[in-house]
Write a structure and sequence with these properties.
The structure is a homotetramer of 268-residue chains.
Chain A (H helix, E strand, L loop, with lengths): L19 E16 L5 E14 L8 H13 L7 H11 L5 E14 L6 E15 L2 E15 L1 H6 L6 E12 L7 H9 L4 E2 L6 H12 L5 H14 L3 E10 L7 E9 L5
Chain lengths: 268, 268, 268, 268
Amino acid sequence: MDNKTLVDVQSIRDSRGIDLQRVGVKNVEIPLNIIQKDGQQQIATVKATLTVDLPHHFKGTHMSRFIEILNEWRSKKLLSIDLEGCLKQTIEKLNASNSYIILQFKYFIEKEAPVSSLIAPMGYNCAFEGVFIDNKYDFFLSVNVPITTLCPCSKEISDYGAHNQRAIVKVKISYAPDQIVWIEDLVNLIESTGSSPVYPILKREDEKYVTEKAYNNPKFVEDVIRDLVNELRQIDIIKWYEVECEAFESIHNHSAWAYQKELIKKNK
Amino acid sequence: MDNKTLVDVQSIRDSRGIDLQRVGVKNVEIPLNIIQKDGQQQIATVKATLTVDLPHHFKGTHMSRFIEILNEWRSKKLLSIDLEGCLKQTIEKLNASNSYIILQFKYFIEKEAPVSSLIAPMGYNCAFEGVFIDNKYDFFLSVNVPITTLCPCSKEISDYGAHNQRAIVKVKISYAPDQIVWIEDLVNLIESTGSSPVYPILKREDEKYVTEKAYNNPKFVEDVIRDLVNELRQIDIIKWYEVECEAFESIHNHSAWAYQKELIKKNK
Amino acid sequence: MDNKTLVDVQSIRDSRGIDLQRVGVKNVEIPLNIIQKDGQQQIATVKATLTVDLPHHFKGTHMSRFIEILNEWRSKKLLSIDLEGCLKQTIEKLNASNSYIILQFKYFIEKEAPVSSLIAPMGYNCAFEGVFIDNKYDFFLSVNVPITTLCPCSKEISDYGAHNQRAIVKVKISYAPDQIVWIEDLVNLIESTGSSPVYPILKREDEKYVTEKAYNNPKFVEDVIRDLVNELRQIDIIKWYEVECEAFESIHNHSAWAYQKELIKKNK
Amino acid sequence: MDNKTLVDVQSIRDSRGIDLQRVGVKNVEIPLNIIQKDGQQQIATVKATLTVDLPHHFKGTHMSRFIEILNEWRSKKLLSIDLEGCLKQTIEKLNASNSYIILQFKYFIEKEAPVSSLIAPMGYNCAFEGVFIDNKYDFFLSVNVPITTLCPCSKEISDYGAHNQRAIVKVKISYAPDQIVWIEDLVNLIESTGSSPVYPILKREDEKYVTEKAYNNPKFVEDVIRDLVNELRQIDIIKWYEVECEAFESIHNHSAWAYQKELIKKNK
């Protein structure tokens, strides 16, 4: 095949005069090494989106290069710890000025039952997100953590029992790129704000413990978010957060929901 | 345009000698009138699959005819009450011998709170399914009903409280086509097998009622399925069922699950 | 039952000093009348989220009131045309100062095949979104429209053929609340920016037409977004938009994706 | 804590007289080692369901034991290669007579571009399923493979071009437990039945190749299934299969779909 005949259609001059903000690939599946807090690595199944801006004079971007970059960084096993480097290389290889990446994955943590101390892995939906725009890099960490919420109102007004349910807390934070917040630590913090954590394995003595703990510790979704906001505001390196708690009410077919977003003003 | 030049590729003779069991269209979205138990109609957003068998000598079926049939039956507003007629016409128009249809939709029922008697609609995922094969017609009704389950073990071993959660019960039944089982009745029957039904609207007095009712009425997923099986076996016109209950455990991130399928032998 | 004994736990004074931005109900399912451009109505299956802010001194909001409000507005059949009124009443009934609503639904439009003129309904995922904050009301309309994109590069470099695929264009716009943009018009505009619209029913003469039309009209996702941006900028009443195009590449298992967001500056 | 006080509610005698077919845990997430054809291992994120039958005289099963079993087999790194052993142990530990397991996961295979020979990983949804019932063990392997289909009718009737799209082929097979069918081989076989495979990375010379290959090789979903059936019937160790092909038509918002299931009679 004569490659010279293969016109580079993407590089044709475009006359519409419109700069595009984000152009690239979405839902690319790759296996990726993630560094754990204990220094070990785990391999996660990742969905990746990687984009650049496209100046008005180019007709299109070069989609295959994004896959080449993701694959190269995956092989170097650095993608999960140097998003900034990946974004800079993307900008360079695509002749762009801005770049954006998000890596979404299930992350496993060994959780210990509260009484029997039995251990089993539990999966958490997480994301690493990086934005390099106007020569400034921002990093975002997202974790989704299931918890139990037990309704304070139901407990108060009922002669016995109280409705409770699984709820999901979604936390997204940004912090200075030279710092690190471990997924393990953020999960623990979030779990402490529910009526009780949820566990992969519970024997009878554990089930008694979490049932009574939740009953002693009733929480509205409002309470979960307020306690979480209190905690996040005290973590010095966090400069921005977005949190929500959705409780899959056991007495309804809809959810109770609370949401908060805040830029914590700091000279960082 | 000269239509005579448009070859009917589908009718070309195929030489592989393979009869196909089901060929057609999937995930066709249509609005559809459904007859309620009270005689009124409601319009549902339906996902439809409609297929025929394909004899070995034809290369392909004619996909556009399925859409024409669905649209014609929709306009006649009979599709939800005469699946058999629709299947027979499909067989005729496609020169086939067998046909299959499934219509999946959200169906709303007005539910009344147990104490305040406040009323609001609640949506249930349902399906009508028809099979016409070897000159025999079978009909299947599916309904998915959320309920509350309160754990008997957690109640028994804990000094106070008991974990409970939303669970989903999926029931699929078949009965003689000349009979009718109303969605409303099947939903009520299923709701009676949980620790408590779930409701769209509950005031404080209702919340106290359902909290205490669930606590007085603990159920494993095994209990839900056994009580349901008991009920279904006693309904004379039901000749086959498949049921499952999945409880989204409030103390775990996985589900407790029970399943049963049975052909109730009857000379029908 | 003695209602006086049912303590209003939500109204208990909270001491954490944290104002919450959004608290309420999520994924409430209701049937809703939507006004069509032709003046007729259609009933849609809606997923609703409705929230208010919660001042720091209240422990919780009153979740059941949101359902009462949604149900009351649904019955008055005005919810889809007076989101602002609904938000104002929500603020009043919940003693709040801000309110937020989103209604997500499948909306059907009768589409006509380009040659045979056969007509069948096609469903589009849409959303109405309203925000009432600091005494200012904003409205957002979202529509998701499937189109065909045919790859300009594949066409140019190949001796025959060109890969093409279904793509989904998501458009969210905001405009002055005293104006109206019909879903039907926005869908038509979006469909005009693809290589070809997609249709619910196509006979052979139609299939020939759309195949050749797409081949004559190749588009990258970048082209779709640029043509769309061009159009949206010219619509005088639109003051803000967010658009994306995701093409489910027929030669890959991932998507090509382009995204743009813009506040069109106007003294409105 | 005095464990003797923790009554074993599950072991209470049940009087409803109903044997349950499947009771256990669903959607348990675990990381799992899968053996590749090349002898290496990969770690997959698995969703597991594990159940037993429950004789009529027991009130409930012991849910935590399923998690213990899954976790123990995971640690021994044998779960993916000895489902039968896991089912037998489950039967023993739960005092049951039947058992069922399904493990669903994304499996990565390095795929090579057809001309440039560039390599990148591509993920396939797969499942291992085991049934141990009446002292007989059956194993099922499922793989979902995206392919390109190019419409023979569109090609024939159009002066140029032909609509094509991504399609997904789902294949489930059963074979003698003492044999092995590698995921890699089954994926290759399935990819050969489309108009073209899909690839994670394609440079311009590759894109030209797959565009022309698909145009030279038009396939209805019917053709894909027939070619696949032909292949599967010739593989001696396969005793049962269920296959479907769903094409996400680029000219419609619905799918073309074909389905076939067959017990290949053999004295095995």
